[in-house]
Write the structure tokens for this entry.
Amino acid sequence: MARQLAPVRDQRMRRSLAAAALAFAVFALGASQGATSHGARADDESFILGVIPQQDPLGADFRAMVNGGVRSLRLAVFWPRVEPEFGAMDWSSYDTLVGRAARHGVTVFPYLYGTPSWAAHYDGIDCSNDCSIYAPQTSATRGGFAFFASEAVRQYGPGGQYWAAHPDLPYRPIRTWQVWNEQNSSKYFAPEPDVGSYAALLGRTAEAIRSVDPRAEIVLGGMWGPDGSSEVIPTSTYLSRLYRQPGGRESFDSIALHPYSSNPPGMLEQIRSARRAARRAGDGKAALWITELGWASKGPSDHYLVKGRRGQADRLDEAFSALLQRRERWRLRGAYWYAWRDTEPTADYICAWCPGAGLRTVSGDAKPAWRKLKRLARGS
């Protein structure tokens, strides 16, 4: 299978992308084609306050979101979940989630992430537990990821197959696509962050997405880490290096940050640092998304993101108020709180503070932080 992966995938991609491009052209006939520039889309929306789930949201979750004025959900779209075996894509689980969101008037903001074990093994990676964190490392597997991305657009983008098959649903095509997640950290870009490798993946993926939807917005994976951080390649350093990669600047429309900090002033400094890096690269007008931000109400008492119920609410209020005040100056498109609902902690959970980061408890009861966000969402 490995020897046949590249030619089979390339042939299948060419056929599918050509068909998708034709379908989109027919769909878009007569639509306005006003020119856009890097970081400025013709279909910009007002500032978005969204949330991120820690488990697949149910109808009751969506109803609570909408009742609170939250109308966007950042959703992980995992390649391993869609194509666990080479050549057999299954979108059914995401069909359910996208349909559920559309039915309740919620827009999905997807981030495309993860590598199936078969693709990681093709790259020569010895992984048995979690292969998803190993980003594609060869032309063949990057092409595979790009094909997965193009199929996601064909499924849920303008004129997508899902919408055609469900004319009863409100039509909410996905136009914004985030490529990977926290690529400046070895926790999500194993075995270690590599700017050149990410740039190659980003370029292939952006090309594939745009061949299906030329007006799609391509968003960088969210980066975190203040200047001087030893846990990751600091955001400003990573971004500066990305701009220097061949084609790096042309491969994306918007920057994304995960400016986690003990307090809102630290969050704001990470954003300022990233904006300075963009200006130095001649890209000061690039749009910006905060695709993760949060504090927990419970968890390890010595963790810098665990603040108690009242502390969580107060930091949410201060942070989102500061972002709303600066949205025009910083060209902020939106911000997403991590997470929607608490989850039960397990020994292998992704992080120590995450289970208590929800705006609502495991059972769905509202926390003080939810009431703060609801007030901001309704007034934004």
